[in-house]
Amino acid sequence: MGDASMSPADERDLVSDWAADLADTGHAAPTSRRYVPAVRAFLVWFADENHEPFTPARLTPIDLTGYTQRIQQTAKASTVNVHVCALRSFCAWLTDNGYVERNPALRLKAIGMPEPLAPKSLKPVHVNALLREAQQTRYAARDYALIQLMVQTGIRIGECAALLVGDVQLGERQGQMIIRTGKGNKTRTVPLNASARQALAEYLGPLWKVESNVKAVATAWAKQSTTSPLWRSQKGGALSSRAIGEVIEGLVEVCFQRNLVPSDTTPHTLRHTFATNYLKDHPGDLVGLAALLGHSSLETTHIYVQPSADDLAQRVEQTRLNAYS
Fold it and tell me: pTM of the predicted model, to two decimals?
């Protein structure tokens, strides 16, 4: 059994020995950088709370619970759980090395993480404002098609920028595109609805010198190089993710100045908008949405089932107890 009475210097050595053991047993350096300050903070709290220096023999489960309850008052759940994991590790080490007879952290549990709110999405009036503004730019047909394609399919900006002519199939009644650059290098197929198909036809028709309708552009598609970029810059080269982002940011800025869209609208907001509206039209179809978005886990897609901050605010505003509603 280790010495039950310890000086502050001994206390520091105790934590240092435990930290060294973490490294020796293969724990990653970032883990140690999070755990060690957490335990040191607990030891400071222990001394202040109990009016005595920390000694392993005086450590009880009540101390651990009291500390975690204290930090829950000001810290996020994720931060609290880092402290919980650190204290579990430290107490297990104290037990293994004979400083305590019984592990005081055996019943110390992590706290539940709050359900994340759904990410912000745009209302139809916001989307219409962006589309209308896109039709006023120098490259109106292209910029309009960019917004339409992203909001009608939910693809990421990088996936949009990487599209080649050969990745898209267009027809009067249906269309689709193959996403080859999704996360994890997974390929998926995403359908194109009528709005997306028509927007692409209006963009590509003049470039290919055909009528700007889906039938004419679909016929001309077979004559194009399959390796050509779908999106062209003003110099004729491929439009980069950064350039697409700048197009969208410019549209948002102009619309925001007229109070037409939220200022924090980003290209990813278009993806969230697609996802939110898909579930409104097809409630509960997380499997289908996950396939469209390229999510490998339904846990990722599940966030769209949660209400957004705006949804909650609206619900509280409309409660029947609100005398001013």
Answer: 0.62
